[in-house]
Design goal:
With 333 residues, this protein is an all-alpha fold. The protein has one domain (62-155, 192-331): MetI-like fold (Orthogonal Bundle), CATH 1.10.3720.10. It is 65% helix and 1% strand. It has helices at residues 48-58, 62-83, 94-99, 102-134, 139-154, 159-169, 174-181, 196-220, 224-232, 237-266, 269-275, 282-290, 301-331, and strands at residues 6-7, 14-15. The longest helix has 33 residues, at 102-134. It is globular.
Amino acid sequence: MAGTLQPSGGRGGVVPPGASRAPGSVTDPGAPGSEAAADPGPPARLTIPKLLRGLRRAAGVIPFGVYVALFLIAPMVAVTIGAFQDNSGGFTLSNVNAATHGVYLKGFWQSIILSVLTSVIPGILGLIIAYTIFTAKRGRVLRQMAITAAGVFANFGGVPLAFLFIATLGSSGLVSQWLTSLGFDPYAHGFTLYSLSGVVVVYLYFQIPLMVLVILPALEGLRPAWREAAANLGARTWDYWRYVGGPVLLPSFLGCVLLLFGSALSAYATTEALTNGTIPLTSIQIGSFLNGNVIAGQENIGKALGLGMVVIIAVAMVIYVAMQRRAAKWLRC
């Protein structure tokens, strides 16, 4: 019938009678593109130039991977395996059980208390100092000087730092004698450099500069346009920090505090040189096992203590990474 339409062979479309199909269209049965699927052809061959290009891309990652494998993964695996082995190499839970009771459990609690105190207090003080540097009128020169000084102080520790504080705040130190001559004897009022409170004071020396170093980039990420927009909307300084600056800066601040927590938890040399092991900290207890001060049959308790430190640090680092990702979302806006 002349007035009827015929199916086109496509997706339900119609073609008037006598109309020609365009070459290469899906309605042309003989078109090259009308096959159900094109032949993918043979797989790409791995040639020497491609292999060399791949090796060049991985050249910068391979040394770091080897370093991590040798000095992080391998020791962690060895400590984990040893924590569950007895002297004959068999599986046991006695090492973990001993590491979570008695003096070793007290060592964990003392280490956590010390780490919390020496992360929160330096975190607040370091934030104040960093904000002062950030808002200074001549911020560029002051910032460079502060970063240089903070880098030096943050990496100063161990026996030299212990000697510095013994000569300054020890029972016969310069500052202690000066305060005594003024009528105030700190040691007569309960302070001693060789107690937990004294170790907290010593840790402030390198924890505060470390906080300044890690929080300054977060402060610089606060854009001036945010404060200007808040001021244009009638917000006061308190309102800006409560609703804008504070929420944006909080994840970075908490992440930096967790970083300080990990730094304080793993510190060893300063406290050992200062107290000679009189404070039961887990890092000092592990050092005693490494030095051979161990009862026969309890050699692997030190590895169980190390496993406990790894677990604590791992939890802190997971929270730290989560905080940094949340802060990065704000700073990318």
